[in-house]
Amino acid sequence: MKKRGLILTDGAWNQGRDPLKVAAYYDKLSVIGFPPAKQGKIRQLAVKGTGDFSFVEDETKVFAAILKCLN
Asked: What percent of the residues of the chain are helix, what percent strand, and what percent coil, each to the nearest 5?
């Protein structure tokens, strides 16, 4: 069974282990970031998890970003 995940984040990593190390445990970890997240940092997390990356600045765009990541 493949391990897949989807994270919606503001980029504030404040609990648990280093997310970049944990991302490598997934077969596909997609990440959707929103302000105040730094896009480069969030993109790096998606790359480590071999998943998709989206950055949304408006909450009305979240649904479309989720669909993009799930396809």
From this structure: 40, 25, 35
| Measured CA distances, 56 to 4, 29, 36 (Å) | 21, 17, 11
Q: Is the pLDDT of residue 69 over 90?
A: no
pLDDT digits (tens, 9 = 90+) for 31-44: 999 999 889 988 99
Q: What is the pLDDT of residue 59?
A: 85
φ, ψ (nearest 5 deg) of residue 4: -125, 150
Q: Which residue reads 């919606």 in tokens? A: 8
In the sheet with 28-33, reading across from the earlier edge strand, the strands are 4-9, 28-33, 50-55
